[in-house]
Specification:
By secondary structure, the chain is of the alpha+beta class. The protein has a single domain, classed as Aminopeptidase, CATH 3.40.630. The chain contains 7 helices and 6 strands, in the order H-E-H-H-H-E-E-E-H-E-H-E-H.
């Protein structure tokens, strides 16, 4: 099955810890996570443009101007990649994820709107990334993020740096997660890491 067809069949998770409705803003409750399409490009762009200089650095790994964000959104391939997120009733995007599968590897980028953090939105996005990677039968997920929050979730979810080299990105090997305990009775490192990765995707 083509990757885009499999993407469309993936059930979308809801936020693990959704925003509680604000007394002064009764429509602030989150809608379930959705997959975005080309018609959502304007609000995706608005979400990313609202990120300040530091947040843009954490999201993209480098400084990026407004015109760079506009070009990034214009180049999104919504049929090939999986762009998902959480928004409120009025349509404003509060959390956005972009997942790309290339040669068996999943790469991803996550962002949460300023003022909406520490509420489980990033954790919901991250969990959906790991669940999606398994549905797509990806060999591994590579975390290129420089965001401390994302790196913490990745490390807690079983991601490791190949060879322990600090210059390497964090990686979660997926096709070794189902290794059984060898005859000698010693569990593999990948098998020990798997439960933590599954908890991150719950």
């Amino acid at each position: 099955m083509h990757a885009s067809a499999r993407l469309a069949a993936v059930p979308l998770a809801t936020a693990l810890n959704p925003l509680a409705p604000d007394a002064g803003s009764p429509n602030l409750a989150l809608r379930p996570m959705i997959r975005f399409g080309a018609t959502d490009a304007p609000r995706i762009r608005a979400h990313l443009l609202a990120l300040d200089t530091d947040d843009r650095m954490l999201r993209f790994g480098h400084g990026i101007r407004d015109e760079g964000i506009a070009a990034y959104v214009a180049a999104l391939d919504f049929a090939r990649d999986h762009v998902h997120g959480l928004c409120i009733a009025q349509g404003e995007i509060l959390a956005l994820g972009h997942v790309a599968l290339r040669d068996g590897e999943i790469d991803f980028g996550l962002s949460v709107s300023p003022g909406q953090r520490q509420r489980g939105l990033g954790r919901a996005l991250f969990g959906h990334v790991t669940a999606l990677a398994r549905v797509l039968d990806a060999a591994r997920i590579v975390c290129h993020s420089v965001s401390p929050a994302v790196l913490h979730m990745a490390a807690a979810g079983g991601f490791r740096r190949p060879g322990g080299r600090l210059t390497e990105p964090l990686v979660l090997e997926l096709r070794t997660e189902h290794n059984t305990v060898p005859a000698g009775g010693r569990e593999s490192q990948a098998a020990r890491n798997a439960p933590a990765a599954r908890r991150a995707a719950a």
